[in-house]
Structure formats: structure tokens, C-alpha cells
Write a structure and sequence with these properties.
The chain folds into two domains: 89 residues, Orthogonal Bundle (Helicase, Ruva Protein, domain 3); 49 residues. It is mainly α. Helix 2 packs across helix 3 and helix 3 packs across helix 4. InterPro entries: C-type_cytochrome_biogenesis, CcmH/CycL/Ccl2/NrfF_N, CcmH/CycL/NrfF/Ccl2_sf. This is Cytochrome c-type biogenesis protein. GO terms for molecular function: metal ion binding. It comes from Sulfitobacter noctilucicola.
Length: 149
């Protein structure tokens, strides 16, 4: 019984973030607000959506989303308003337009660059080993034999 209660409490924690006084009377608007809130980052908790966060700033953002929806804004207008106010960091999944494409492409580009540099290094190393293996002359071999005795 205790385990069942614990499991239910763990499953219910993300739902507890939205306070009862925040919930809109219109179920359609509330569902839109919840969907929008899932895509917005809590600026205090970092990688947690404002829908899941208990932070005061997350609550303010949830209320702001609901205010904009009640005022008649579309989903895109609501998101644009919040991004204009708090910056693009507030989006959990930023778009790839503008200068963001460079951030999205930086990882794969660095991987390709590192792979190319590794390949050049390994080929240069193989070439230098082959060139460095020159047999000793008779005079050098005789000197080496004297030193080793």
C-alpha cells in the first residue's frame, strides 16, 4: 500500500506545479495553455518546463501565457510575446532559423573537423615512420657494435 501511494505521489508531482487558482474556466484555453507551457523553459530550473516547475518565475510565466490566451492571442503570438520579453532561451526547443543554424551545425562540424585532423595526423605519422626507418651504414653499425660491447 505504501509503495502504491509513493508511486502515485511521484507520478503526480508534475501535475502539482500548476496551482488551482491558475487553471482557466474554459477547458479548451486551459489545454492550449498547458501545451504552450510544456514548450517554455523555466528560467530558474533550467531544463524544466514552466508546466512542471514550482518556481515563482514559472508561475508568473504560466499566468502570463493564460493572460495572453484569454486576451485572444494565438499560440504563435503568445510564444512570440514571451520570447520578445525573455529572450529565445525561454524556448525548450529553439528553432533553426537565423543565427541559430550555426549553433545546431557546430556539433557535427566540429566532429568532422576533429575526424579530418585525426586522419591527417595518422597519415603523417605513418609516412614519417616509413621514412625514419633507414638502415645503418656499415660504419655506423660498426660503431654501434663497439658501443654495445
Amino acid at each position: 500500500m505504501k509503495r502504491l501511494f509513493l508511486v502515485l505521489m511521484l507520478l503526480a508531482t508534475p501535475l502539482m506545479a500548476v496551482q488551482p487558482d491558475e487553471i482557466l474556466d474554459d477547458p479548451v484555453l486551459e489545454e492550449r495553455a498547458r501545451e504552450l507551457s510544456k514548450g517554455l523553459r523555466c528560467l530558474v530550473c533550467r531544463n524544466e518546463s514552466i508546466d512542471e516547475s514550482d518556481a515563482t518565475l514559472a508561475r508568473d510565466l504560466r499566468l502570463l501565457v493564460r493572460e495572453r490566451l484569454v486576451a485572444g492571442d494565438s499560440d504563435a503570438e503568445t510564444i512570440d510575446y514571451i520570447v520578445d520579453r525573455y529572450g529565445e532561451f525561454v524556448l525548450l526547443k529553439p528553432d533553426t532559423s537565423g543565427a541559430n543554424w550555426l549553433l545546431w551545425a557546430a556539433g557535427p562540424l566540429m566532429l568532422l573537423l576533429a575526424g579530418g585532423m585525426g586522419l591527417v595526423y595518422l597519415r603523417g605519422r605513418a609516412t614519417s615512420n616509413a621514412a625514419a626507418h633507414v638502415p645503418l651504414s656499415d660504419e655506423e653499425q660498426a660503431r654501434l657494435d663497439d658501443i654495445l660491447r
